[in-house]
Write a structure and sequence with these properties.
The chain is built from 9 helices and 11 strands. It has helices at 4-14, 48-56, 81-91, 101-104, 110-117, 149-159, 189-194, 224-228, 231-240; strands at 27-30, 39-43, 61-64, 95-98, 121-129, 132-147, 166-167, 175-180, 199-202, 218-221, 247-250.
């Protein structure tokens, strides 16, 4: 049988904790590392509903991409969703583990899964950290064939299963070279330009930041959840490839807090 520590040691061999960004809180957030694992639920986020789902599906470990706790908790009285989630996990004896920017910063992580989803070819790390070309932020690669901007936007929407793509004006000519960075990846814009990308696919762009495209690249903001949603399946695959003594399940819940309204001009008859 496997303990929580067996699971976390394996995950940290793939995405070491020292690769997480300074602001992050990856690692075991709730739970005893010596606890035997009955089942694992993978998810992008860990909320109260995620804990309830884990209990209902007999999973006593949640492996989430986003940490439920970013800042120190001074009280645990259920005043907000973070506190309520932690309280519920402790009450239900469900451990919570987060594998966040450390998974963003390795070659086999979040951004490779985006590159694969877009069927990019010859992809590599966009913004390496230090001397290792396999450690760093984002990915850049080639589309399977050149596309006009309108074709690419439709392709992006379909492949990434997103209802809305906020974007800047496209460049003239076809698109062939694409950079991607899951989550809040605007910091990779300079690297994308230098690498000759015609498009940067990421999320969380603010209005004035779109001007930074400056006619040199098309920025495509597809939404934070949408850019990282396939991480749930990635985590399950990683664990299933190593462990066979317990079930590894993907969450069936959409934890995206953002909803989209589409106005229809069609008049009912």
């Amino acid at each position: 049988m496997a303990s929580i520590k067996n699971i976390t040691d394996y995950l940290e061999a793939i995405a070491p904790l020292h690769l997480q960004e300074g602001y992050d809180n990856a690692g075991l957030i709730v739970g005893n590392p010596d606890t035997e694992v009955r089942g694992v639920l993978t998810s992008l986020d860990c909320l109260e509903a995620t804990v309830a789902e884990a209990v209902a599906r007999d999973c006593n470990l949640i492996v989430a991409h986003h940490p439920i706790v970013f800042r120190g908790l001074k009280r645990l009285n259920g005043a907000n969703y973070v506190e309520r989630t932690v309280i519920e996990a402790i009450k239900r004896d469900v451990a919570i583990y987060a594998i966040h920017t450390n998974l963003d910063n390795v070659f086999e992580g979040v951004n490779k899964r985006i590159a694969e989803t877009l069927d990019l070819r010859k992809y590599k790390i966009l913004q390496p950290k230090g001397e290792d070309p396999n450690i760093g932020s984002g990915m850049i690669g080639e589309l399977p064939h050149e596309m006009a901007a309108s074709e690419f936007l439709a392709y992006l929407s379909e492949r990434m299963q997103t209802e809305v793509v906020r974007h800047t004006a496209p460049l003239e000519g076809p698109i062939s070279r694409v950079a991607v960075c899951g989550g809040s990846g605007g910091f990779t814009l300079g690297a994308a330009k230098r690498a000759g990308a015609q498009v940067l696919v990421t999320a969380d762009y603010k209005y004035h930041e779109f001007f930074d495209a400056d006619g040199q690249i098309m920025i495509c903001d597809i939404g934070h959840y949408e850019s990282e949603q396939f991480t749930t399946q990635l985590l399950a695959e990683i664990l299933r490839n190593k462990f066979s003594t317990f079930a590894v399940l993907c969450t069936e819940r959409n934890t995206n807090p953002v909803r989209y309204y589409k106005h229809s001009s069609e008049k009912s008859s």
